[in-house]
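Task card 7
Instruction: Convert sequence to structure tokens.
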Amino acid sequence: MTLNNDTAASTTAMTNDDEFTEKMYSAYVKSAFASLEKDDSLQIDTLTDKINAPIDSSEAITIPHFSILLKGLINHTSKLDDRACNNLIFAILRYKWLVVSGIDQEVYTTFIDLYAHFLTVLVSTLPKFLTEVLNKLVREFELFDSTTKSTRHHQILQKILRYIPTSINMIPQILQANFPHHISSSTGEIINYVDNLMQVLTYCSELQFSIWQLIFECCIKLDVELQNELDDLDDDEIEELINGKDDDAELLEVTEEEEEGEAKEEEADSDDEEMGEVEWVDSATSTRSIKTLASKLDNIMHLLLTKTSNSFTTEELNNGNGVTLFNTINSLFKSHILPTHFTKSIQFILFRITQYQQELADSFLVLLIDVAFNPNEIVEKRLKAMQYISSYIARAKNLSRHQIVFIVSYLMGWLNKYIIEREQETFDIENKQKSGSQQQTGGMERFKLFYSAFQALLYIFCFRHEQLRKDPSQSTSTSTSTTSSSSSEWECDIDKFFQRVIIVKFNPLKFCDETVVYIFAKLATKLNVCYCYSIIEHNKRERMLQTNGSIVLPPSAVGNFKQKQEFLDLEAYFPFDPLVLPMCKKLVGQNYVEWSEVNPDEDDDEDSASGSHMEDDDEDDEDDDDESDDSDDSDDSEDSDDDDDIDSDDD
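Output:
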């Protein structure tokens, strides 16, 4: 019998794998390679077709026979360096090796071991397939978490990195290319992928920065998307939507039935009805989108927080591992989170881990101070850093009293210097306006960093006034006050500082966030720190008159109201306002200061209905000029229930 006849007979016989014994199948594989040397790829192509066939197909290769094939390929890997074998190799790489079912466990384990071994031998013998193998392994990260079937993937990756050290340079790009899309991918796929990325770090710490960068970028995208969806909802609606019962599927089902009935009943008037239906469906779709986005972000952040919970112990910091990880996360905060417009959740990764050790909190604060007071940074980034300082000091429960007082002292020192150096500019602005100069000198917005720093002090004081009182048991000489011989009961003589600064030409109470100003005014009056209501009412009357055009205001006020709106949004941003993500909120809550913990006694709020509301917009002040005229006689009514609004999520 000729060789060609033997080949044809073998190919025909393969139509039914059950007829083959292991020995016969092994002989067939050897015959396929022998034929390949004679430029006959028919048997190789037949093997390729059987591997490509659906697993449940009668034409598909069986697992025992696949194992025989893999043994033969492992022993003849060098022979695969033939163009005719490329399709066979790609078919093997496409094979879903971890989802095989219905076979004996021992047979399955043997197959998995051989498959993993084949991938390792393939790339070590034929490095040209390295990219394909790495892509396969990484692409399957989304299918399983690191504690189940993907264990094999990591074993293979470790061997590849050991055999081909330069392969590490290829991995970051491959990890990025295969990262599940933050919108179109499921929560499970994203979580599995992130979980496996964290597992990679256990044996390849060199990829720490690139992996954390990928994860942060995904979280930021989810965070921004979620905030865009939540923009038009109030706090109660957000809380109910994200943490409420998930009954949207039932509602949607009922509504779809109603829509079908309406469509059959009357087509003539369908335009108006369809408009309502579309609006409802859009609302339901938006609800599902919000829940999905929140679930993805919550799960990722919770995974990161739990995975790193033991990474910042004293032991880990001393051996350098914890420091390296913290520096990576801290650096990514500065480069990715800080410049992003108003994220609401991802920054709590830093909030949580920085409170494991005092040194970590110090390092985080140093970063924020360096950005906020660095003249080489852009103003927007400096403002954002200032907002982070105030919100972090206010909310981080594990901060020491020394850390709180130090930041307050630092802010006060900077503000004092700023007033000395730049208050004259406010007079220059007024003089130019009096002279009718048309020169574009700019308005009070040029001082927005000053206002942001002052607001930071107000906000910190509202939350930390107890820590800012001097300890009566300590002598004045040991106080951190800027005037050690002072008789003030407050650290840094902050009461005298406020009394002086609220009346400087900058008029900070006018340009800071109204909610914070009103809360501070009530608290400062209660604690006998300073009295703000007369200034607040003066600013309010001035604003109302300017809005109504009733009078021509003094030149110093002209243009200020228009400029104010330009930076109000920045000033109203508090990065560590309460989380709405349920799992992370529970974790963060362990070291988070709720407003209810520091809120003054509510007994004084009985007359709240008569007070001014801190969230009134400038445009809402057109009503009742007479109320403003009489407001000086009703200062006490300012003790409104608005302090409950400083954080409506802190219920």
